[in-house]
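Translate structure to sequence.
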C-alpha cells in the first residue's frame, strides 16, 4: 500500500500504518526545524505529526515500562523508500531519558504527506541525516550482547 509502513520487531502488536492512520489516531505535534543540508544549505521546514514514542508505545514494545534499564536496551531502526536507514535508541525518545520530540510527520510545510509517505523528523539534529523520507518500516528490538572471548 502506497504511503504505508510496517511497525514490527519485539512488539506485542506489530502493525502496518498509513499517514491517514497517524493523523486519525494520535495527536499531532508541530516542529519548526532548520537543518544544514550538505548539498543545499540550510533547510527551513514546519513538520506536523505524532511523536514516534507514542506510536511505537501503542504497539507494545516487549519491555517492562517500570524497568528503566530494560527500556534503555531497545533500538529503533527506520527505513525509507529511497533505501536510507537510521537508528535511534528508545532512551533517546523516552520521556524519562532524552525526551526527544521525534515525529512521524504527516504534514510538511502545510502539505499532507499521504502520497509521499510519513517522514521521520529529529528536530534536535543540526543536519538532516537522520530525517527519513517515505518511511517503509520501523523495527523495534534489542541486539544480542556478546562478551568478547578472553574478556
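Result:
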Amino acid at each position: 500500500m502506497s504511503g504505508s509502513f510496517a511497525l514490527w520487531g519485539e512488539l506485542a502488536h506489530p502493525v502496518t500504518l498509513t499517514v491517514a492512520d497517524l493523523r486519525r489516531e494520535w495527536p499531532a505535534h508541530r516542529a519548526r526545524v532548520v537543518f544544514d543540508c550538505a548539498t543545499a544549505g540550510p533547510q527551513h521546514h514546519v513538520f506536523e505529526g505524532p511523536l514516534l514514542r507514542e506510536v511505537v508505545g501503542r504497539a507494545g514494545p516487549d519491555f517492562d515500562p517500570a524497568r528503566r534499564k530494560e527500556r534503555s536496551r531497545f533500538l529503533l531502526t527506520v527505513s525509507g523508500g529511497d533505501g536510507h536507514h537510521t537508528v535511534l535508541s528508545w532512551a533517546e525518545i523516552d520521556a524519562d531519558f532524552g525526551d526527544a520530540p521525534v515525529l512521524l510527520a504527516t504534514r510538511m510545510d502545510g502539505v499532507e504527506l499521504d502520497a509521499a509517505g510519513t517522514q521521520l523528523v529529529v528536530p534536535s539534529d543540526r543536519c538532516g541525516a537522520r530525517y527519513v523520507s517515505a518511511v517503509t518500516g520501523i523495527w523495534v528490538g534489542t541486539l544480542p550482547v556478546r562478551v568478547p572471548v578472553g574478556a
